[in-house]
Amino acid sequence: MRQRHREAVPIERCEVQAYEIPTDAPEADGTAEWTRTTLVVVELTAEGTRGLGYTYADASAAGLIHRTLIPLLQGHDVMDVPARMLSLLRRVRNTGRPGLVAMALSAVDVALWDTKARLLDLPLVRLLGAVRKSAPVYGSGGFTSYPIERLQAQLSGWVEQGIPRVKMKVGTHPDADPVRVEAARRAIGTQAGLLVDGNGAYTVPQALSFAERFAEQGVSWFEEPVSSDDLEGLHRLRARIPAGMAVAAGEYGDSSFYFRRMLEAGAVDVLQADATRCLGISGFLQADALCDAYGVPLSAHCAPALHTHVACAARRLVHLEYFHDHARLERMLFDGVPPVRQGALAPDLSRPGLGLELKRADAARYAAGTSS
């Protein structure tokens, strides 16, 4: 066990690298389609200990981190995460904090927490303080680009693995959605939970109409039926949606101010937060605190390996998204990725920090540009 640090532990080295990884098949949702996923990894070294964080963002985020954020990190104390993040937030004031900048900041924040936990020789969940031993997950994929046979095989496969709830995409071809949802229900049986995600593809009248039809198949979760920016529209839907169906949104949240506005508007039954977008571990815990204050459940969005520890520390968490694309990529590029057991992810308490190690040789073939 390392000695508990009583003095500053300066950051000695900062590195960032983007990786572009092809998907295993074309993927699409109600408003987008893609064939590659970009991962931006930040690594910090302090007192000879290396920690990491990452985000799923455009490769340009790596350049932003290198030029704008790293100069404010090197030589400063890694143990004081709030101080480091405050200095970075002040630095990007005129750059524009939301969006890409917030994602870059998120990767750095996660790396700061991971490095600190490793220096203390603690699993991150021990440093944060655990609420639960494991985080329930839901299988997530069911892309609109999938033929029905692949949709059914993917969703039923998760149920057979013991994951009791699954999510599919809707909205690309609205007229086909009721048939696809019915096919999904046939594949997973009557006991598994079925969730749908519109990614903001519908209008309010469309969403209300489809909600009634989806309810016939026992759909219990309607994510982003309209754009997350349309807080009034989400609020109207909540008031009229079938009983037993939750409206969820928030995955694009980039700060506590975003989440507070959403909660104040009464826009969601369940708030989503993504530590790769909402200012990292720090921002995710702020979202959890807001959910606690408003009495609203919290769901972690994507990046399952990154979220496992903080999900177990979040008081209001109900589940964690086991997103097909990210789960596959994390297994490809990291050692220490936790396996799903009995429908949940549990931190490996034998490994410090996040418990993840970059597979450098495997990752190198996907490198985009040069590292710093």
Give a structural overview:
This protein has 372 residues and is an alpha/beta fold. It folds into 2 domains: 123 residues, Enolase-like, domain 1, CATH 3.30.390; 228 residues, TIM Barrel, CATH 3.20.20.120. 38% of the residues lie in helices and 23% in strands. It is built from 13 helices and 15 strands. Strands 4-5-6-7-8-9-10-11 form an 8-stranded parallel barrel, surrounded by 8 helices. Strands 3-2-1-15 form a 4-stranded antiparallel beta sheet, sandwiched between helices. Strand 9, helix 10 and strand 10 form a beta-alpha-beta unit. Helix 9 runs parallel beside helix 10. The chain is globular and about 60 Å long. The chain starts with 10 loop residues before the first strand and ends with a strand. 51% of the residues are buried. The model has no long low-confidence stretch (mean pLDDT 95).
N- to C-terminal distance: 31 Å
Tell me the count of domains: 2
**CATH homologous superfamily annotation of the largest domain:** Enolase-like C-terminal domain
Range of strand content? 15-25%
Give the overall silhouette.
Answer: globular
Which strand order do you get reading across the main beta sheet? 4-5-6-7-8-9-10-11
How many beta-strand elements? Answer: 15
Name of the CATH first level of the largest domain: Alpha Beta
How many helices? The count is 13
Mean pLDDT: 95
CATH structural fold name of the largest domain: TIM Barrel
Low-confidence stretches: none
